[in-house]
Design the sequence.
């Protein structure tokens, strides 16, 4: 909801174009730490408006129809010098990427001894044979926010984790904490992993994806230690099932 004051040419935009950022200067062209401001601005967009990109574009159109020189959000700095830059960033971040010709699956995994990685590569090969564009992402080397962004845009996802201390490893939880519970509803998902003792990671990933309303396929797949031929064949079949759950 926006409020516009024609006399001062100011738009009061509530959360829109705002951020959780505070320093002694309230005007954007007077702030002392522009890099910190830019980081807070992007983080706030990702958390609050990332799941609602079509509505962001509609909001920008409403602002463009008005003669505005200043934007005063409910929290954060008041925009005037960086106003056009802020609007352009919102437009850039909200414009959908061109749809690839193939359906896309992201397989993100963490692997302590390489065994879960073996399962990930086998799953990827099987999904590619189904005609999907597959990208394998090693969670230990790829930034969590980039992986989450790719999952949010993909048509299906599989997440793999080994089990340490009866839990999925922290980098996997970091990814799961960044996934959208809005844009990913009914998106096919699966979980897999190798374990040495108890193997709780797969079930935990399943529960988290269920809570985010992904369309989780089966119960996930886990294997003890190094996957043998039968285990890898089961992983391949499971990947085919996840791929087959994609609509259209």
Sequence:
């Amino acid at each position: 909801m926006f409020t516009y004051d024609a006399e001062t040419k100011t738009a009061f935009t509530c959360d829109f174009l705002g951020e959780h950022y505070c320093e002694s200067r309230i005007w954007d062209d007077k702030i002392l730490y522009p890099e910190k401001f830019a980081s807070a601005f992007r983080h706030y967009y990702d958390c609050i408006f990332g799941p609602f990109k079509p509505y962001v574009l509609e909001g920008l159109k409403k602002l463009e129809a008005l003669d505005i020189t200043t934007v005063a959000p409910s929290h954060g700095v008041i925009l005037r010098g960086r106003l056009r830059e802020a609007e352009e960033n919102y437009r850039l971040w909200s414009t959908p990427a061109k749809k690839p010709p193939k359906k896309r699956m992201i397989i993100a995994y963490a692997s302590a001894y390489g065994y879960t990685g073996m399962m990930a590569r086998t799953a990827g090969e099987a999904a590619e044979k189904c005609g999907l564009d597959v990208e394998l992402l090693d969670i230990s080397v790829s930034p969590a926010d980039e992986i989450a962004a790719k999952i949010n845009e993909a048509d299906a996802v599989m997440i793999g984790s080994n089990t340490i201390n009866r839990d999925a490893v922290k980098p996997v939880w970091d990814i799961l904490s960044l996934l959208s519970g809005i844009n990913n509803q009914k998106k096919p998902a699966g979980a897999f992993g190798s374990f040495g003792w108890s193997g709780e990671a797969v079930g935990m990933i399943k529960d988290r994806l269920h809570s985010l309303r992904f369309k989780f396929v089966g119960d996930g797949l886990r294997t003890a230690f190094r996957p043998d031929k039968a285990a890898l064949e089961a992983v391949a079949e499971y990947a085919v099932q996840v791929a087959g759950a994609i609509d259209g």
Q: What stands out?
A: The chain is about 40% helix and 20% strand. The two ends are 36 Å apart (CA to CA). Residues 34-49 form the longest helix (16 residues).
